[in-house]
Amino acid sequence: MKNLPLYRTPMVVPKGRVREWVLVDATGVPLGRLASAIARLLRGKHLTYFAPQWNLGAAVVVINADKVVLTGSKPAQKTYIRHTGYPGGQRHVPIYRLSAEAVIRHAVKGMLPKNRLQDRMLRNLFIYEGSTHPHAAQQPKPITLSL
């Protein structure tokens, strides 16, 4: 048994890596397309050294979250379901009652993997409803989403 070869791909952790900061403007972008682009950046799938078991993604700063677009009849009909934990405690919350930050965070969370890294990746997501943000010192690189 000890003469069997090990068929494993060697994974090398990038040493001295500094997390990149990305600035995304949500003005006029549909919610689902914005969330999928943000989830891709948070996971690090845009990097050449992507590994699903590490949190190597970028820190994403989203500005103008209040100007994101909900297509079709979603603004009037879409509801989120939550449960209080008590019998008969299912609650339906219309999307127009939530803040734009909560709507974007919920959409991005649904597109991230359901494992221990999900919360760690969400800590690198910063959402602001206006065009100003307190992360100027990190010099986030503005990107345009190719949608």
Description:
- With 147 residues, this protein is of the alpha/beta class.
- The chain has one domain: Ribosomal protein L13 (Ribosomal Protein L13p, Chain: A, Alpha-Beta Complex), CATH 3.90.1180.
- The chain is built from four helices and six strands; from the N terminus they run E-H-E-H-E-E-H-H-E-E.
- The strands form two sheets. It has a four-stranded parallel beta sheet, covered by helices on one side.
- Helix 1 crosses helix 3.
- The longest helix is centred in the first third of the chain and has 13 residues.
- It starts with 20 loop residues before the first strand and ends with a strand.
- The model has no long low-confidence stretch (mean pLDDT 92).
Descriptive keywords:
single chain, 147 residues, Ribosomal Protein L13p, Chain: A, 4-stranded parallel beta sheet, 6 strands
- Unreliable spans are none
Class by helix and strand content?
A: alpha/beta
CATH superfamily: Ribosomal protein L13
Roughly what is the average pLDDT, rounded to an integer? 92
Percent of residues in helical segments? 10-25%
- CATH top level is Alpha Beta
> What's the alpha carbon Rg, rounded to whole Å?
19 Å
Number of strands: 6
CATH topology: Ribosomal Protein L13p, Chain: A
General form: globular
Integer tally of domains: 1
Report the β-strand fraction as a percent range: 15-25%
Main sheet attributes: strand count, strand direction, barrel closure: 4 strands, parallel
Q: Tally the helices.
A: 4
Strand order of the largest sheet: 5-2-1-6
> What separation lies between the terminal Cα atoms?
53 Å
